[in-house]
Amino acid sequence: MRIVFGVRTRTPNDSNAERPERLERPKRPERSVKKLIIAIDGPSGAGKGTIARTIADSLGYRHVDTGAMYRAVGWKAEADGISLEDEAAVAALADRAEVVVEGGVVSIDGHDVTRAIRTPEIDKVAAAVAKLPRVRAVLVARQRKSGEAGGVVMEGRDIGSVVFPEADVKIYLDASAAERARRRANDPQHTGGQAGTAAVAASIAARDRADSTRTASPLTIAPGAVYIDTTDLPIDRVVDTVLALVRQRSS
Ligand code: DC
Fold first, then answer.
1. For the chain, how many structural domains are there in total?
2. Disulfide engineering: 158 pairs with which of 3, 50, 67, 217, CB 3.0-4.6 Å?
3. C-alpha of residue 64 to centroid of ligand 1, in Å
């Protein structure tokens, strides 16, 4: 009798020789599958959300949208009447607040703010909150805690540069300003859609300026990041490119 890949074959003298009997596959030591940290950064409208979500789904990873954390804190500061100039108060609010951003739902202290944080008003508020170093320190610490075990696709502006400089895969997604404005104006999740492309383009340009010129962790291409211009690329091409990098880094 020979054992070949868990199938016991029988010699012609065995009874029932024509029916090989299946045995349980011998236990091989599990090759541990490394759970990676994938960082996706880039400006608004570059496609980070769609790409990060698709990559996370296809790998069975968690998707963490860190921009939603800045938005939720900004929303709560407004709701509580806290001035965005008062850095200590906004940082204390961020520290106290329970912010949940996974699974497509965003909530802060039990309030579902998934829709409420995608407005032109909260675009501005979030950019103001994101300038405050003490607020960033609170949120960056949470982001690290949430992603350190791996198996995560985290998107934002500073993930590859500050939150996880040692991330296994770092991507910087970009697109032309006109294309980003077109995408954002057509984004059904973003109520800025009614404003029209020209107004959206102006607001995106203002946010680009705010995000890349602030002193605390400005938007930048992290060392080691792979730059992908998505202007003329369909989503599945971008996803394939990122998945190929993931395969490369996990082998
Ligand atoms: O990605 P978004 O547009 O939802 O982000 C909202 C704001 O937060 C935007 O002004 C950029 C800022 N942000 C940041 O500074 N760092 C991050 N990691 C994520 C977002």
1. 1
2. 217
3. 12
Q: Say if 28 falls within a structural domain.
A: no
Per-residue confidence (pLDDT) for residue 79, from 0 to 100: 97
Residues in contact with ligand 1 by the CB-under-6-Å rule are 44, 66-68, 70-71, 126-127, 130, 156-158, 207, 211
Q: What DSSP assignment string belongs to 166-186?
A: T-SEEEEEE--HHHHHHHHHT
Positions of the chain with pLDDT under 50: 1-20, 29-30, 193
The total number of residues written for the chain in this structure: 251
pLDDT of residue 27: 54
What gap in Å lies between CA 58 and CA 239, rounded to an integer? 10
CA distance 106 to 113: 6
Is the four-CA dihedral 220, 223, 229, 235 of positive or negative sign?
negative
- Residue 186, Cβ neighbours under 10 Å: how many? 11
User: What domain range is 52 assigned to?
Assistant: 33-240
Q: Provide the terminal-to-terminal Cα distance of the chain, rounded to the nearest Å.
A: 36
DSSP H/E element including 228: strand 226-229
Supply 56's token pair.
């996370």
